[in-house]
Defensin-like protein (Hibiscus sabdariffa), 135 residues
Amino acid sequence: MIPEQWASPCGNQCTDKYAALMQIPWRVFCKKGCSADGETWEECLSECDEICYKDPVLKDQKWSAYIDRSPGAANYSQECFNACVSGCGYKFEICKEIVAQVRPRPLPPSPPPVVKPPPSTTPDVRAEDVPSTSA
């Protein structure tokens, strides 16, 4: 048995598509699409969504999204999703044009920046009201 036969055809296609050294993470996510448990194209895409985007791990606890094992940054999540969708496309033999049309879910809007009030320029009157006590 030669090494090319050890992996699935889907995995081999991921290896070919993401062959460069800098693309190894995306190759991994492509192969996750190949090995997704979904029985249909839509279920596979849903799994890619779960893999690549941070969601709360604990229900109703938004902070728990930080312990989710997805790539994190928005551009990394999008690259992850695209690679995973490629794997799903290889798995279900979907034509490249349809795979290219798949878009990730819209990202939630980032919270507005916190604006601090400018420091007060008036003297602190309370400090003058306290009598000094010396020993």
About this structure: The two ends are 92 Å apart (CA to CA). The chain is about 45% helix and 0% strand. Residues 22 and 28 are 12 Å apart (CA to CA).
